[in-house]
What does this fold into?
Amino acid sequence: MRVLGIETTCDETAAAIVRLKPEGGGEVLADEVMSQIAEHQTYGGVVPELAARAHIEVIDRLIVRAFEAAGCRLADLDGIAAAAGPGLIGGVVIGLTTAKALALAARKPFIAVNHLEAHALTARLSGGLDFPYLLLLVSGGHTQLVAVKGVGNYLRLGATVDDAVGEAFDKIAKVLGLGYPGGPFVEREALKGNPARFDLPRPMLGREKPDFSFSGLKTAVRLEAERIAPLTSADVADLCASFQAAVIDTLADRLRAGLRVFGDRVGPCQTMVVAGGVAANNAIRRALMRFCGEAGLRLVVPPIPLCTDNGTMIAWAGIERLTLGLSDDMTFAARPRWPLDAEGEAAHHGKA
Ligand code: KG4
Ligand code: ZN
It folds into this structure.
């Protein structure tokens, strides 16, 4: 089975072709990504209109490149998948319409993939990962803890009530005059700084429900920066180190709460999977390793290009769904919001 996956929900345009191996797991035949970082850099964040235009400009070429890299044609595919949300609607529509058009033209199944589900399932691409597991999704757009019980079977244990953790890194980088996206810059500065210099808040510490909050922490960093301005390079490094330490403490505490809820509602947890661009942060990865070691959990962190937004994860989620006989029809509309689980879905429709 071979599936093309298209991703356009944020600021990466991506197309990939993945083959299901007979022994399970996937082989990536092509993985093309075009990042729009340069377009958004001057604004310090993603500008939706610019993103949509950039997706349109490159998507056709990118898909052609994916076919060339994979050495196959449209007719060789068994399905075409696109991320149908959640995300910036202008971009989602472009990937979704492209996938529908290809599926119609080639008379192939079309699969509308939830971008969060794709993050949740990617770790299974390399094989050897069974359900259930705990997913920590930490990206620029999302911060969630999810119990992954099966394909299409998710329980959202907690999520951020305000900023995503990557978003906090980006905003702090902006305040401190560092580059965009902020994560790698803040991490680099933090290496040189003193994590104990600033006494920053650890939001949500001790709360039973494994939710997250990063807006207060971000504000605290900004206020400290304003208080001691003008900033020396040592001040910037100390602020970054103190911020990163607060993030690490918060994540560990929220994970402890998440594990408790997982135990109550799903059963014993053996594996934790991390996804999202923030997983690229070495200090955070080390902290997660420590956490999992202490909690007796196996930690699975997919290679960083698979943690950030990519086409492979959409193609793989397409394969997982298609294997179960799941596909969608052409009426499937793009969804700016699309909670992963039934409870979130009910809340979204005002029923809970
Ligand atoms: O998953 P991703 O590529 O895109 C989405 O947001 O969906 O994640 C991007 C986020 C950005 O907020 C970026 O600052 C953050 O991941 N990030 C990092 C690091 N590298 C990327 N955050 C902390 N440390 C890093 N090294
Ligand atoms: Zn993502």
The chain has two domains: 2-123+306-351, 131-303. The chain has a mean pLDDT of 95. The chain has twelve helices and ten strands.
